[in-house]
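Dear colleague,

Following up on yesterday's call, I've attached the two folding results inline so they're easy to grep. Please treat them as preliminary; we haven't cross-checked anything against experimental data yet. The first protein's sequence and structure tokens come first.
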Amino acid sequence: MNSLSKRVLRTITNTLISLAVVSALWLFSLWALDVTPYIGKNPIDVYNFLFNSDNAIANRELVMTALGQTMLDASIGFAFGMLFATLVSVLFTLSKGIEQALMPIAMLLRSVPLIAMAPIIILIFGRAELTVAVMGAIVVLFPALVNIVFGLRSVSPAMYDLAKVYGANKITILRTVAFPSSLPSFFAAVKISVPGAITGALLVEWLATGSGIGYGIVSAVGRAKANEVWAYVVVITLVSIILYNLVALIEDSVLARFGFATNR
């Protein structure tokens, strides 16, 4: 078995273990809290709702349509957040003055709850994709920024001095030395940002766009459709776990190619 096959097998195993743990916690919580079956649905109830009921096809279409919208919203937020975090990280690495000027803004965005800023963001940007991008980027920005900056500054002094000896400027050092060295931190930022972007998408759907799983959950709760609520929760949780482990698989492959040891 080659290294790629081993990484794929390990990723599948990790995904199955994660799903098993989540399912066990789900069932244990229902039992420990003595949740009434009218409200608390177990995996069999969700399976029946999606695959073994009279309206199973319509139920699946409803959930998958909402999931598609949420994934689109999460992708927009993730892309804008990671792009902005990467650009700001580069500026921070090149200039301490820029970091001292902009870091308080990043700290402000981190410290103020997004739900408190949401009304203002919605008033400014409306309820369309631009609001999705802004709110998603805010969720992703700070943890990604911290990790990427740390990675870009993890270059050993010896490597930095060697590049300087050969006449490399800051941009060249950043491109040829800092970026490769920052790959572990970059992928750590991606793994944190993927579930963060999904959370941001759910929040913006609930507060602003009125579509996707975020709105679907609120709407189903208001109509006392517990099976639908749990189906939404299960599907988005499943997708989050799969995406996280997929990023981990890509991380292992890329880091192995660049000569980083992986301990997973």
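Below is the second protein, in the same order (sequence, then structure):
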Amino acid sequence: MKFKPTEYKLKNVASGRIFEDAGWTLSDPESPSPSLVRAVYSNKQFTPREELPGLYRYADWMPIKRILKHSEAPVSYHSKGLGKALGLDNLYITFSGWCPRIGAEMPTCSFKETEAYSVLARMGSDEKRILVLQSAGNTGRAFLQVCSDNNIPLAVCVPFDNLHNFWFRKALNPCVKLIAVPHGFDYYDAIRLGEKLFEDDSRYFPEGGAKNVARRDGMGTTLLSAVEEIGRIPDAYFQAVGSGTGAIAAWENNLRLIEDGRFGTHKMRLYISQNAPFSLLYDSWKSGKRELADLDPELGRRQSEVILAKVLSNRKPPYGVAGGLYDALADTNGDAFTATNDQIVHWIMRVRELEGYFIDPAAASAVQALASAVKEGKVKKDEIIMLNCTGGGSIEAMEQGYVHKEPDLILDPDLSAEEVIKRVSALF
């Protein structure tokens, strides 16, 4: 499909400096201190593009050069069942997953597809290097699927203990490779492994995580979906977080909508949730400090092993950096919650009963946060609430048949960079 690249520049959140994107800029090269950069779009009005397919209806606020195949947009609707059960008149659920009955058909059943279709469309079609991504599960699955469908070379580094997440409706294109760190290592170790590939920057380049404006603005389409349905900015926003990048993305699009002016001029309160006992972001926020709370690596590994929502166990989140999660929560008068495994199981089953689909453990953590906020009086009965259900429908989708993607390679993250590069390069 012929597409005119979206017009935008980049802004250093800390200094306010606006500069051109060199193509894959992840930070301001002139910044004296760590800061996220933010996309500043030429089009200041939120204008869905009816002529573009799937997620790309929001292309005017996505930093992209092209349109990729098979994208799906999140689906937002006014909840009756869950809203009534919680005593909320205006609960809107934004669902990213598989539930054809409501029009949701993301094959990987996760809102991480919104990241993948945005990040990969930011790449030029002439890119010769191999993209490298580190993932705890859903992000890697989404990128593997989208790269496979669009013939884009990709290496994904993941924990062995999370390999159950890597199921697909059919076998993947050999242009994508899955590399695992051994049993007992966690997401942080997968990050370390991937970083060793970047020493050969002529062959490999980093996706960038939270630093990548395309990742955040892809996730930010969940809010755009809700606002398109509601007609205004919500009063409060609920989401489970591992890195907090999705909440940062919602905050950033909230600011863009305020600048537009047609959907309200208020900042919605951001409420985040984690799966206890892994509660790094919760603990950091409750400490009242910008600095990330201390977490012993071995304790973090043990905590990540016992939680159901393993995708929420990021030990290197963008918390204190300028424009990061601390700033997003502080600027919106937000708060943090936790959910136990038992509470997550309860809400998985309850949402199935009330809304008609199974949600992922992470999304169930967000529902528990909403229930806690109602109980504590943090949200009012008649307020407009957005619940970002970041994944669901995997049970229903898997019933139609699936294959597991086995790792192409298992590598110790303590190997030398030279050895890692040698062994991974042999796959391509």
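For the second protein, one point worth flagging: The two ends are 28 Å apart (CA to CA).

Best wishes,
A.L.
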